[in-house]
Design a protein that fits this description.
The chain is of the alpha/beta class. It has eleven helices and 13 strands. It has three domains: 2-62 and 180-239, Rossmann fold; 80-143; 270-328, no CATH class. It is elongated. It binds adenosine-5'-triphosphate and magnesium ion.
Length: 328
């Protein structure tokens, strides 16, 4: 599970998100969407523990598999197969021990030493089999093949692979791992149509938690059961506890009535006045305004609710500030 409290993200001076609480649990398959540059990648990076938030706390239980939008650089001398298998550390360690012991056996001069190594190899092999090692190897090979990585490529060091192939290796590694939460940033990049179709089916049956950023609407439609819409203008996330097609209808309704997410799924502040500022002739409020905006609805223009009275600050014609006595 990933739990995020009071998250604030910034890119330089720009606030990407503020005072946001997030939770990813087993069974959640969340699509994180928003316009380009809204901060989706930054959000996922912070959730994965690879970036620091400006403020807020993040708690993770269980292993997290994170596919970043940009390729990682690591040890480029390992083969693609070893890279994928390293996702299950115990199996990986056993495999390396077995390989080392095998080399020792072939190089042993004394019979007694060779016998000792043979017995050791037998023990390691038993452990490997007990952990499902052979099945795991074929599972890894199956995932890789479905993502367009044939055996020939899997035997090559990462250094010799293209950027797209390395990214597919990383995606295979994450899908092969035992991670209880997957955070995937544009997983369909560099995949062909067959691989995308396979990935869609694979993620659809995924039981652990998943947050996926994707511009592939077919993938979102098939996979997600919740949508987080990161609104770059308001620097908040609207939460929709519904699948993709229902989300699109709901969003259309929200847009047509000039509101943000509505109904029971809406967890954050009401958005009516903020989303259509021109209707009431006021500029979009500064981001901190709604935090302690007083309760007790008042109307600021016909048919539009606002929350508290708006006042203008001295020296700034259109800038809004908190009502007197509410500033902290
Ligand atoms: N290393 C960086 N230094 C400074 N600003 C950055 C850096 N990385 C990203 N940004 C800025 O942070 C903002 C959010 O970027 P981010 O990559 O998280 O957006 P995104 O929603 O993932 O966009 P896209 O859909 O294009 O992938 C952007 O305005 C971007 O210019
Ligand atoms: Mg991005």
């Amino acid at each position: 599970m990933i739990s995020v409290t009071d998250l604030e993200l910034r890119a330089g001076a720009r606030i990407l998100m503020s005072e946001t609480n997030l939770r990813v649990q087993p069974g959640d398959r969340i699509g994180l969407v928003g316009r380009n540059g809204a901060g989706k990648t930054t959000t996922l990076k912070v959730m994965a523990g690879e970036g620091m938030p400006y403020a807020g706390t993040i708690t993770r239980t269980g292993a997290v598999g994170y596919l970043p939008q940009d390729p990682r650089t690591g040890d480029l001398d390992v083969t693609a197969r070893d890279r994928v298998l390293s996702a299950r550390p115990r199996l990986d360690a056993l495999l390396h021990d077995m390989e080392k012991t095998q080399i020792g056996m072939s190089e042993a001069v004394e019979d007694a030493h060779r016998d000792k190594l043979i017995r050791r190899y037998g023990r390691l092999e038993d452990q490997f089999a007990a952990l499902g090692g052979y099945a795991a190897e074929s599972e890894a090979a199956r995932i890789c093949a479905n993502l367009g990585l044939p055996d020939r490529v899997m035997a090559q060091p990462l250094r010799t692979l293209s950027g797209g192939q390395r990214r597919r290796v990383e995606l295979s590694r994450i899908l092969f791992s035992d991670a209880s939460i997957l955070l995937l940033d544009e997983p369909t990049n560099h995949l062909d149509a067959d691989s995308i179709s396979w990935l869609r089916d694979h993620l659809k049956g995924h039981k652990a938690g998943l947050v996926v950023i994707s511009h592939d609407v077919e993938l979102l439609d098939a996979v997600v059961n919740k949508v987080w819409y990161l609104d770059a203008n308001r620097a908040i996330i609207d939460f929709y506890n519904m699948g993709w097609s229902t989300y699109l209808q709901q969003r259309e309704t929200d847009e047509s009535v000039g509101a943000g997410a509505s109904g029971p799924t809406r967890r954050r502040r009401p958005a009516r006045c903020w989303r259509r500022p021109t209707r009431c002739g006021r500029r979009r409020p500064r981001r901190w305004l709604p935090r302690t905006w007083p309760s007790g609805p008042k109307r600021c223009c016909p048919g539009w609710k606002t929350y508290g009275s708006m006042t203008r600050s001295r020296g700034s014609g259109s800038r809004l500030r908190r009502p007197a006595g509410k500033r902290r």
